[in-house]
């Protein structure tokens, strides 16, 4: 009887760990069967798809940078997807990379319009901001539309 209780407790702990891992961070997931293009709730905004990993040091520099850009440019719709602990987000990352003609190489990876960046450095931040400004002034594709 005691072994059975320990087994049940272990199953409950593992289930809780998987649940919490899926809920960690500021990530978003795609409900099954929903078109990814539907993530962009406002087609008048510049959609940024940011794939990151919980504990990734480069991601921890880029997240606040993107959040600052979102404050600076209200025309941005920032979508963050934690991929290391969320398999559904990992699949979305892989699908997005394929749509851009590449493989999901690592995080952080950011998709804006027709361009993507793997990794993060200051010069990439400048390129991203330039692309955002271009898209605010011109019509750019929502990266999610590439998956449709």
Structural notes for this entry:
This protein is an alpha+beta fold and 148 residues long. Helix content is 45%, strand content 15%. The protein is built from four helices and four strands; from the N terminus they run H-E-H-E-H-E-E-H. The protein has helices at 2-23, 57-72, 87-99, 122-137; strands at residues 46-52, 76-82, 109-112, 115-118. A four-stranded mixed β-sheet has the order 2-1-3-4. Strand 3 (109-112) and strand 4 (115-118) form a beta hairpin. The protein starts with a helix and ends in an 11-residue tail after the last helix.
The N- and C-terminal alpha carbons lie at a distance of 53 Å
User: Which regions have little confidence, pLDDT < 50, spanning 5+ residues?
Assistant: 4-38
How many beta-strand elements?
Answer: 4
H-E order: HEHEHEEH
Q: Identify the strand order in the major beta sheet.
A: 2-1-3-4
What number is the mean pLDDT? 80
Radius of gyration: 18 Å
Q: Main sheet, how many strands, which sense, barrel?
A: 4 strands, mixed
Q: Assembly type of the shown chains? A: single chain
Q: Can you tell me the overall shape?
A: globular
Number of helices: 4
How much β-strand is present in the residues?
A: 5-15%
The structure class reads alpha+beta
Secondary structure: helix percent: 40-55%
Helix and strand layout, with pairings?
Blueprint: H1 2-23, E1 46-52, H2 57-72, E2 76-82, H3 87-99, E3 109-112, E4 115-118, H4 122-137
